[in-house]
Amino acid sequence: MLTPTEAARTILEHVAPLPASRRPLREVLDRVLAEDVTSPIDLPAWDNSAMDGYAARAADVEPARPERKVTLEIVETVPAGRFPTKPIGPGQVTRIFTGAPLPAGADTVVRQEDTEADPTGRHVTVVTGRDAGKNVRYRGEDIRKAAVVLCAGTPLGPAQLGVLASIAHAAPLVHDAPRVAFMGSGDEIVDLDRADEILAGRKVATSNSYTLQALIRRTGAIPVDLGLARDTKESLREHLAGARGADLLVTTAGVSVGEHDFVRDVLTELGAEIKLWRIAMRPGAPVGFGLLDGKPWMERGRGRGRGRHADGPLDWPAGFRHPDVHGPRQCVTDCARRPAACRGGRDPSGVAPGRSAPRRRGPLLRWPYAQAWAARCGWPAWLCWRGACTS
Questions:
Q1: What is the average per-residue pLDDT within 289-295?
Q2: Angle at the Cα of 301 from the Cα atoms of 299 and 306, rounded to 5 degrees
Q3: pLDDT tens string 24-35
């Protein structure tokens, strides 16, 4: 009997990448990136103001105190969406708004609250020098040109889509969404159209079907509901026929050692290659994996009547990349190489390194080191060890 780690390794050895194609950015939520993405630009593309105020020289505003205010000349006004046309020199400022490019000569933005306006609009008085050298977002501070911003195998959530949009990456190469067929079985299991029998205690609700369908949809995969099979070989064959064309088959129950647990027998009769059957774990020993018509199949036993799948270190890990199986990932974002410089830091060239997109945290994976290698083969990251996800 295999340990959970050995079982996971066996599963991962038989998971292959799904085909990939370029899709419009608005259509790739929860798809898995199939290539490393490098930025063609620095982001921000220019030094710009972090707030509304006045672009100035630190040397001019640093001496300002409430008892010794500094009055400076306004040479022009630059709102966001426009570029400055005049540099500033000693004793000069540019009226500027958040996001607007800094004029040549400026290295400071004095916040508007620290100034007093001149009625003529030609001058401004700075009352404190606390902003000297501050409130500037430097070119390349978020993402540096040619930096890897997202690695192949990254699940594309809302934050990742925003990163791709910010560098005008309109058609990412993503793996196809998997079609995941799922099926429950058991004479005592019924759907909610028979609620009276469920509430009377004569039948058990097919809670697994709803849980699995929600998990599949949440990850961007396409659910294929095969329905509920009875505890007969004929019913199991009839329902399993609907899995043709699916990329993954998931079944629940029917894998234990009872007289009516026929799933293994039927799959074998249909030509399935059974790679593992049961693992050394309690509770949760009934775990099956194999290939049916060359496509992966997974089975988990479940205590019927319970509202969730059995907890354990191995819950549906198909498609996850494991370092012992596939080797270490080669893609490393610029932020991972130089984490100390990811937020606002600048290297000697004057351009800040890019920082990687936020890590994705999924809800349910019990396999502690799986997520670091997740979805490399194009499968969605269904289940995640909370707090242990890395990119």
A1: 91
A2: 130
A3: 999 999 999 999
Prediction pTM value: 0.71
- Per-residue pLDDT tens digits for 354-366: 333 333 333 223 3
The C-alpha torsion from 156 through 157 and 158 to 163, rounded to 10°, is -40
SS3 content of the chain, % helix, strand, coil (to 5): 20, 25, 55
Asked whether the beta carbons of 161 and 15 are under 8 A apart, the reply is no
Q: Which domain holds residue 272?
A: 4-18+177-316
- Position 146 pLDDT exceeds 90: yes
pLDDT-derived band at 259, boundaries 50, 70, 90: low
| DSSP secondary structure letter of residue 43 | B
CA–CA distance, 227 with 176 (Å, rounded to integer): 24
Question: Residue 204 has what pLDDT?
Answer: 94
Q: Percentage of residues in the chain with pLDDT exceeding 70?
A: 74
Has residue 116 been placed in a domain?
yes
Query: What is the secondary structure of 193-245 as a DSSP string?
Result: GGHHHHHTTSSEE-HHHHHHHHHHHHTT-EEEEEEEE-SSHHHHHHHHGGGTT
Nearest of 137, 118, 147, 138 to residue 41 by alpha carbon: 147
Contact 191, 206 (CB under 8 A): yes
Which two structure tokens, joined as six digits, stand for 270?
Answer: 């249909």
Number of structural domains (the chain) is 2
Q: Long-range contact list for 60-64, CB < 8 A, 24+ apart?
A: 60/90, 60/91, 60/93, 60/126, 61/108, 61/110, 61/126, 61/129, 61/131, 61/132, 62/129, 62/132, 62/133, 63/129, 64/126, 64/127, 64/128, 64/129
Q: Do 185 and 290 belong together in one domain?
A: yes
Do 212 and 264 share a structural domain? yes
